[in-house]
Structure formats: structure tokens, C-alpha cells
Amino acid sequence: MSAQPQEPRIPRRRAPIAITIGVVAVLVIAFFVFAGLYTDVLWFQQLGFLSVLTTEWIARVSLFVIGFLAMALPIWGSIQIAYRTRPVYAKLNSQLDRYQEVFEPLRRLAMYGIPVVLGVFAGVSASSRWEVTLAWLNRTPFGQTDPQFGFDVGFFVFELPFYRSVVGFASAVVLLSVLLVVATNYLYGAIRVSGREVVISKSARIQIAVTAGLYLLLQGVSIWLDQYATVTESGSLITGAAYTDVYATIPGRGILAGIAVVVAILFFVTAVMGRWRLPLIGTALLIVTSLLIGTLYPWVVQRFQVDPNAKSLEAPFIQRNIDLTRDAYGVADVEEIPFEAKTDAEPGALRSDAETTANIRLMDPLVISPAFQQLEQFRQYYQFPKQLDVDRYEVDGTTQDTVVAVRDVKLSGLGDAETWYNSHLVYTHGYGLVAAAGNQRSVDGQPVFLESGIPQAGSLGEFEPRVYFGENSPQYSIVGAPKDSEPIELDYPAGSDNEEQTQTTFSGDGGPKLDNIFTKLVYALKFQSEQIFLSDQVTDDSQILYDRDPIQRVQKVAPYLTLDSETYPSIVGDRLVWIVDGYTLSDQYPYSNKVSMSEAIADSEGLAPALAFDEINYIRNSVKATVDAYDGTVTLYAWDEEDPILQTWQKIFPSTIEPMSKMSGDLMAHVRYPSDLFKVQRAVLGRYHVTEASPFYSREDAWTTPKDPTAGANTALLQPPYYLTMQMPGQDAPAYSLYSTFIPEARGDESRNVLRGYLAVDSDAGAADGERSDGYGKLRLLTLPEDDNVPGPGQVQAKFNSDPSVSQSLNLLKQGQSDVINGNLLTVPVGGGLLYVQPVYVKSTGDTSYPLLQKVLVAFGDQIAFQDTLDQALDVLFGGDSGASAGDNEVEPGETPAPGDGEGDGGSPTSPETPSDEMQALLNQAAQALKDKQAALAEGDWVAYGAADAKLAETISKMIALTDETQGGTGGTEDSGRE
């Protein structure tokens, strides 16, 4: 038979196609990664901080390589040694035979793949510790020693965390090695289990014993380092080594470290001698000893020696905790001033505090944002933040506290016009700073603007008003164009229908240039927008602005800083800049109490953002940063040049931080003491204002920050600190300050809302070039005596709310579907006591309404007053004459004086006219209605009160109408709802 011809085989092409797809996918992913890295280089390079990025990258890559090799090589070497020294003719059971059959085809992959995978994980872990490593390499001594071991504080902040990380990493490498060695030897028969007997070959014994000895040696080093960590660990009483730690835990850890080293030596001996009994007994002894010495003995000392005599035995260690905590948080030099607060409001009591009284802020930054929006927004594509900022400016030779906000762009306000072209090429920036006087209001209760309008106008001087870099700037904008091209960016809108919108072109250096096809392509990939690559408006002269939030920009160029949660805009020279406060933190300061920073800075103004450093026990405001609102320039200034942590980072990133001497006087005039630092310090001083161990242990005088009385009865949010210009006892003149109050710490469900302390810090840095004023940062704590029941904010707010006359006035204000809003309750040390001031706003329920300041509540001791102006309220409160004028004394929100009041045209007094019979009758009716109204109020009969009030309003309307008729219709109409 002839063989049938076979059909030709079609070659299989699946593998090459799969490989090609895989390679293409890898290349695409690699290009996306490269695009992200390349745009980072362009961003940092344009900003002048490329060295920050490259230093971080070099550190990360170097540590990744070190971590990878430190893990992969020992793992690979251990597996190779175990495999190459395996028994050639080992007797294996059937189960191991099956394991080998399955594993053998994958052996080479596993022997190289396992070390590589573990090495990658180790490299990533090591690279994440780049900050710890660089800080250790460039560490700076603190110049202060801890009281337990006598080491420099820098050892605990910089060195100990690094050493413990290295030991922990090495322990993980050795532990994984010994586990893989055991597994490999078991798989290939070097370790056999026969009944109750374990048979180990000589090569396996040597490798396992040496590896186990290394692991125990590392554990000995780790335990030895742990004894130093006792001074930074939090205990039940204090942070730091207490009596039990010093006399039981620390010696015990030293003994355990020695035992671990001895057991490690026994394992090394076993590698030579071949007997497992001694190291196994030593291991068991180590475990038992760790239970006895490491756990049981400290418990016995604590329970039977310390607890019965805790107050006396713990006293020296509590004192260490007090002293070092106050030092670590910068409150060691707080000036405590005993304050016998007066509670009687006597006439003329404010005469010596006239300047403080004139600067009491009535405009609440949390309340008046809608007023800014309605009065100064102008177009739907502008916006103001919900929470405004407080600053101060010199106006006509006088320092004026102001409420400020930037008019930022709001793309969502474009509605259907929110196209790519408009969003990224036309509406690129906000415009202007709006500033209102903090202590004034217009006749109808509106803010009095010192700087406002479009174009910008006011009394704060000429400055660049365009805001390309703000808190709410678009994700990215493309700006810049050839010189002869028509501007397309909206500068500011037309003022009337006959005017045209003003266009502009960005002329600064604010972002990377899109001057070639490749750069356009990588940014199109970064922002997932092909229009960047295709648009004709994106030219070689274009720049792309992104990462525009001031806090975000500072954080990127200074990753070692924790930034204040608030930034604020200020006019510095002819530029509008954002001022950002930066902190250097640590949680390794010996004996310093640890505080949750997020909890400490959370209050009714807002919860804290997620923080990289949350639990801290050391803080310094080491850096002041500015971000130019026009071109985004970031400048870092060393504010605390003596901070060792900042000095360390200056070694790591040289030439990125300017000295304080480079700060201009205009900038110094707007620098302030940061609120987050102050909040942390007040949280610490709630307990650590007590400087002696005995009362501290008993917590006899523990304080807390009061809840915000304006946030509701059941709120748990703290009252925020407030910026005010005032004169504290011990000061020669008023200064821009930040203050907060203290009440007794609650015991169970009981809490007394009486004042126990008043903390203020001088926030005025002066106005000299590169020179900080001597008073800046000075903390003063007014301590009130235990038997002096000065009401706290909660008590005062409750009294305001329950007072019958106040309630009556508030009910009248609420008529006509209006809401009454209580502003911030301020506490001011004047008149030898503490004055409470609260502005009261009225807001109608319409969509376009905004709060108007209508009344002011004041309290001093147990006395309160409620008037149209602060000046009037103080006079009423202090017996008819407070002795000082408030900042709103020139404002007249009441009725307009009737014609003929005062002096006539010739300067001679006019004769009073006798009312007609009809007018007299109406006057009698009004008098009777007023009596009925007061009687109903006294009896609490609100129905009768409303009827009498309506009758009074009707009578007054008739009197006004009669007056108009008598004067020939020339009289004006008055608001009959106000008495």
C-alpha cells in the first residue's frame, strides 16, 4: 500500500502573538510611568526644587537596591546551600516522593523566583524608610540629654528608630532564611521524621544551627535596644520610664539580651559539636526567663511595691515627664499670671483698655462668607471660601484687624459653558482680595470693605490682583501665548452691559512650558486629555499650571514638613501671597507626653485632615512658607533656625530654605503665630500647667478647652482659638494675639463651666526686615483662683439664651421668616476682668440673602447687655459710660434723626411744637400699648404681648402718616418694628 500524503502542519503562532501583546502592554505601562516621572521632573525644575525630587529618588532607589539585595541574596544563598548539600541517596516516604515530583519541574523557578519576590517586597519596604535613613545620616545633636541614660535627645529622635529598623529588617531576613532552609532540607530528605525521632543530616544541622544562632543574636540586640525605647513609650501614668520600668523592665531587658546572646552561642557550638540539647534547653530557658523577668517581675513590682506608694515612688519620674513635655512642646517659658478677675461692671472700667476695646472684632469669619459672596462675587464663575481668614493691615497709620478672602474662580458656575476650552484656556484665574474691617459694620449691618471691587480698589495699596494659584484653582490651566496674539483669558468681567470683558495673557513663569510635541504628549497622558495635544491654542509659548493649591505646593517641595491646616492670603509689597506654616514633628522625644495631633487641632471650625504624623510628642514651627498667588513661586524661610530636626533636613536639602534674614518687613507684618501649634499647646497645658509632681499625680487642677457654645447644646466640638488685637496683663501695649480659655476637666458626667485659665500668645512678629520682634511667641497664662466663679463660655451663652429681655428682642428679630445667627463668642481681658462679646446676625430665608450684623451681646460677671452697637452695649453694661469707645462707635444702625432735631440753620435752638389733639390721642394710645406690652412680658403672657405689640405698631404707623400730612408729605417713613 502506498502511504497517503500528509497534510502540511500549520505552525502555531499563539505564543509569538502573546509575547508581542505582552511586550506592547509592558511598553505602554512603562511609557505611562515615564510620563508621570517626567512631568514631576518638569514641575520641580520649573519651581527650582529639582534637588528635592532627585534626592528623594536617589534615596528611594538606593534603599530599594540595598533592601532587595539584603533580602534576596541571603534567601537565595540559603536555598542554594540547602539544595547542594542535600543527601544523594536519602530514603523518602511516598508523600515526599510525590512532593518532589510536583516541585522538581518548578525547582529552578522557585529557587530564583522566591528570593526575587521577597527581595522586591523588602526593597519597597526599605525605600519607604528613606526619611529615617537620611535623617540618621545627617543627624544633628539636640544639645540636651535624657535623664535616664544620659544620651543626647538626638539619639532617640534620629538614631534609635534607624537602628531598630535595621535590626527588624535583618531579623526578618534571617527568620525567612531559616524557614526556607528547613523546608528545603525536609523536602530533599536532609530532615526526616521517623516516629518520635527527628534525624538531621550534618550539613542541614550546621546551616540551621548557624542561621538560628544569627537570629537569636539579632534578638539579643533588639532586646538591648528595647530598654532605651522605654523612655519614649506611653505607660498607664506617663510617657517615659516610670519606677517599674527603671527598676524592673530596663534591668530585665538587659538580662534577657545577655541570655539571648548566650543561647545564640550555644547554637553556634551545636553547629560544630552536633548536639541539640544545650541550645534547646537554652531556648526554653530564654522563653521562661522572658515570662518571669520580662512580664511577671515587673507586674509584681508594680502591684505590690508601686501601687500602694505610687504618689511618692513615681514623683521623680512624673517630674521628668512634666519638665520634658513642657520643653518638647515649647511651653516651658509660659508666663503664669495670677488673675483676680473682677465681676462688677463699674462705670469707666474700660478707660485703661480703650485701644483693646476699639479693636474687638465683630465680623465672624465663619458667618459672613455669604455676605462676601452676595456683595463681591459679581459673577457665577467666582467664589469665596466658606471660612474666611483673619489678618491685619496698617490703615491710615493704625493697625486694623481685617477679615479677608480671595475671589477665586469657580468652573462649576459656568453651567453649560463648562467646555474644555473655557475651563482650561479662558477661565484660568481668580481676581482680587476682598478685605473687611473686623470691628466695623455699615448702617444696615453689612461688612465695611477696605479692599473690594473689580477692578480692585481700596486702601490696602496697589498689588497684582490675579490669582492663578489658590485653594480652589482648576486642576490645570494652559496659559501664555505669542506676543502678538489676541488674549483669550478672561481677566475680569464687564461692569455694565455697555462694557466689554477684559482679557489678559499670563506673563509670569508659573508652570512647565509646552514647547514641543513630546511635552504636550506626556501632559495629555497625565491629565487624560487629548485636547492638550490637539488644540491650536496650545503653542510653544504656552505653560501648564497644575498642583496649584498653596498647601499642596509647599508639601511637595518640603515633604519632611507637616503643614498647618490653614493658609491665608496677604498683600506683601505689590504681590498677593499665601502664607503657610510648616512644622517639624517627632514622636520619639524622651519623657514627653504623646498627643494625637488630629484630635488636638479638631474644633468647630473643622475636623483635622489625615496626617502622616498623628501621635506626636515634639513640635516646632520651624518654617514659614509663601506661595505667590500669581506665578506660584514657593519660598521657604527657616523660622526656628535652632531646631535640630530642621537643621538635619537643611543638610539633606541644602539651598532650599532661605534664612529668616531674607524675609521682608512687609512679610513679617503679616506673619502670625500658627493656630494648629497653639491648639496642640493648649491641649498640653490643660494638664501640664501644673509643674509639680504631687498635684499633677492627683489631677487636682486639670483643665480642658470648653465646647463651642455656638455649635449647639450637644456638640462635642471644641471652641476654636481666636485672633484679636488686645493687651494682656504683663504687656505694655496691645498686640495681635491668639487666645483660648480653659474650664475644669469634667469628672464623669459633671462639668463646671467656669473659667480657670486664659491662654494667649503674642502673634505680632513686627515689621522689620528679617528681624522677629522680641515679644513674638510669648505665651501668657492667666490663672483664676479656685473660689472665683467667673462664668465660662457655656454659662454665658446659656445666660444670653435664657434672658427674658434678650429673648424678647430676638423674637422680634425672627419675625418675617428671618433666622438669628449667634456669632463667635469672644472673651477679652479688659476692665480688670473678662468681657464676653458676641455679635448677633439676622438672615432672611431667601436664596440670595446673607447675614447682617444687627445686635451685639456683651457680658461682664453676671451682668449682660444687648444693644444695636458694641459701643452702646458697653455703655449700658458699665453703668452708662464704659470709659472707652468701641470700633463701631461711629456707625449708626438705628433710626435717622428726625428733621428739626438739634440746632437750626442759624445755630439757635428751635422751640418745641405742641402736638395736636389727634397726635396727643395717638401718643396716649401708644403709651398704653407700651404699658400693656411690658405687663404681658412680666407675666409671661405671650399672646397678650403679641396683641399689645401689634397695637403699638399700628399706632406708630398712624402717627407717621399724620406727621406726613402735617408736613405736606415731605416726611420719611421709619421702620415701625424697632423701638
UniProtKB/TrEMBL annotation:
This is UPF0182 protein ACFFQV_07200. The keyword Disulfide bond does not apply. Its main location: membrane. It is a multi-pass membrane protein. Belongs to the UPF0182 family. The chain crosses the membrane at residues 15-37, 57-76, 109-128, 166-188, 208-225, 255-273, 280-300. It holds the Pfam family UPF0182. The keyword Membrane applies. It is found in: Cell membrane. InterPro entries: UPF0182.
